[in-house]
Write a structure and sequence with these properties.
Layout lengths: L1 E15 L2 E14 L15 E7 L14 H9 L2 E7 L2 H9 L7 E2 L3 H9 L34 E13 L24 E4 L2 H12 L8 H14 L3 E5 L2 H7 L5 E5 H10 L3 E4 L5 E8 L8 H11 L2 H11 L6 H6 L2 H4 L8 H7 E2 L6 H16 L9 H28 L1
Parallel strand pairs: 3-4, 3-5, 7-8, 11-12
Antiparallel strand pairs: 1-2, 6-9, 6-10, 6-11
Length: 413
């Protein structure tokens, strides 16, 4: 059954000589739902679900020509969606751990999923209620954070790289690897991730350590490297990277490939590179928190997100890579072969690492080191102090020589 949702009402003014003709063009976008009867179970039941997702991570109808997927789900099922957002996995975890909020759907990243599984914070999924799971590519199943595919369904995936201002940096002249984020040539124009796991990972990549190291010595070394970076960092940010890089307020930043693609579509002066030395491969997946009040309705929402047309709308809007084979097949050939969105399997196998859930002791140590790093006082030396001091010394020496010369002349006469 094909469901049609009106997306865009466009008015075009055609001008011929002095006459103007107004023509109304209506563009429709369709969602193809394979089994519409599946979605009728809760019609008129007055059910609502609470969804907790990353910011700017689902088509919301805010732009012309973009479908509001939550509204489409409500129209299809009768289930109201209460939608709120978070900025980091740690924020999501703290909210659930504190018990102050009730959610039916959450979309954490891989390492946080494994932590929440370990701590008994997620419901096992009933895949009889998620028949569209069959669209998820096999290579994205049985990942280490959920090896038996019991608690999560992949939503998006991607890599971390470096976004940069191509009017200020020529990658053919300047090597684009992680240590460029420590380059004092770009002092006060570098942004850094404001969360410990991603920030430590970049320092670990720079040092050649594992992204999943549990060595206290290596973590302390990474923290020292992050402290060394502080003098060149303009700000520690997350979502603000988008605005700052777009507005030209910064030159360099680590960034997620999906967000980078969206940003580059808007601004020609920005480019993105995935360092050849290696990077993090991440998955954001849909889960149901333990004790969710509307588990069946939540599984229906997960199934809806796995509809190929819906998964395509997600990847087309947010720029992140899709694990859904039906959605991938709908992409144009250029996108399918884009090395930023879809790096080749050899690079993914040889050069990327998926975060693992670290031990509690390691998590606590990393958080402590992160807090100490953020609060550390760093002496910002004015680069002009040394040359000015040297100039003053030279002038003082000249003055002493002249004075002695004058005194010697007086003594002669």
């Amino acid at each position: 059954m094909k469901r049609t949702f009106m997306l865009l009402f466009l008015v075009v003014m055609l001008v011929t000589g002095c006459a103007q003709e107004e023509i109304e063009l209506v563009e429709e976008v369709t969602l193809t739902i394979e089994d519409e009867t599946y979605y009728q179970r809760f019609q008129n039941a007055g059910i609502s679900i609470n969804v907790y997702n990353w910011g700017e991570y689902i088509p919301d109808g805010s732009d012309d020509g973009v479908l509001d997927l939550n509204a489409a789900f409500t129209e299809l099922t009768g289930i109201k969606v209460n939608y709120t957002t978070f900025a980091t996995n740690e924020e999501l975890y703290a909210k659930l751990k504190g018990g102050g909020a009730s959610y039916d759907i959450i979309i954490p990243s891989d390492y946080m999923i494994s932590r929440m599984i370990y701590e008994g914070m997620l419901e096992e999924l009933n895949f009889d209620n998620i028949p569209n799971y069959s669209y998820i590519m096999e290579k994205f199943k049985n990942q280490e954070h959920d090896p038996d595919n019991r608690y999560s369904v992949p939503y998006t995936w991607g890599t971390v790289g470096i976004i940069y201002d191509n009017t200020a940096i020529d990658p053919e002249e300047t090597p684009m690897d992680w240590d460029i984020l420590w380059n004092d040539e770009y002092k006060d124009s570098i942004l850094m991730f404001d969360n410990p796991r991603d920030a430590f990972a970049i320092a670990e990549l720079k040092l050649g350590y594992s992204l999943n190291t549990e060595s206290p010595e290596e973590l302390k070394h990474a923290a020292k490297v992050l402290i060394d970076q502080k003098p060149v960092v303009q700000a520690y940010v997350m979502d603000e990277i988008f605005d700052k890089m777009g507005a030209g307020e910064a030159i360099l930043a680590p960034y997620y490939a999906g967000d980078a693609k969206t940003l580059m579509d808007e601004y020609d002066h920005l480019s993105f590179v995935i360092p050849q030395s290696g990077t993090n491969l991440f998955f954001d997946s849909v889960c149901i928190p333990k004790g969710a009040k509307q588990k069946e309705a939540a599984e229906m929402y997960i199934n809806f997100l796995c509809e190929p047309d819906v998964a395509y709308a997600v990847t087309d809007y947010i720029g992140y890579s899709t694990p859904n084979q039906g959605a991938f097949d709908m992409l144009d050939e250029e996108t399918q072969n884009d090395p930023i969105a879809y790096p080749d399997d050899a690079y993914l196998t040889e050069k990327t690492t998926v975060y693992k859930n670290l031990s509690e002791d390691t998590n606590q140590l990393m958080q402590t080191l992160w807090t100490e790093m953020k609060s550390a006082e760093v002496e910002h030396t004015n680069p002009w102090i040394v040359p000015i001091f040297m100039l003053l010394c030279i002038l003082l020496s000249i003055a002493i020589v002249i004075r002695r010369h004058i005194r010697n002349k007086k003594d002669i006469f």
